[in-house]
């Protein structure tokens, strides 16, 4: 009789552990979904601001075309091509804003101070959003690698989480503009 009680208690503990692990994995997947939505919003915001600036007439035609095409491609990219398109937008931003004169041109245009500030904010938020997403992916992958999760198929039919890898280095001139705008006296 006591053996049956011990077996039942052991099975109950295993069941509680499996349920807790499945719940944790479900919460991690929800966190990934939320982080991906936030990343998508930040990427869309960055591309939209870049498109607006490209059509504002602030840059020379070649710079405007490069920036517009990269931003347009990033906005319309399918999931399979999104990382590449976003990396190309980052590269285009670095090319267009290679010199602080370009930032000054945007800032000095009508409504340009707000546009420059919006672009700086968007360029700063993309790496943070990507980091949050990739941290959530890393945590879910760590749980999914456990044998217990695989043996009991606790992940269900959820796809294996993938990190979002892209070039998100900000243009140096924008970083300098942001540092100057946040400095003393501003």
From TrEMBL:
Lineage per the UniProt record: Bacteria, Bacillati, Actinomycetota, Actinomycetes, Kitasatosporales
Protein name (record): Secreted protein
InterPro entries (alphabetical): LemA-like_dom_sf (IPR023353)
Gene3D superfamilies: LemA-like domain
Provenance organism: Streptomyces litchfieldiae
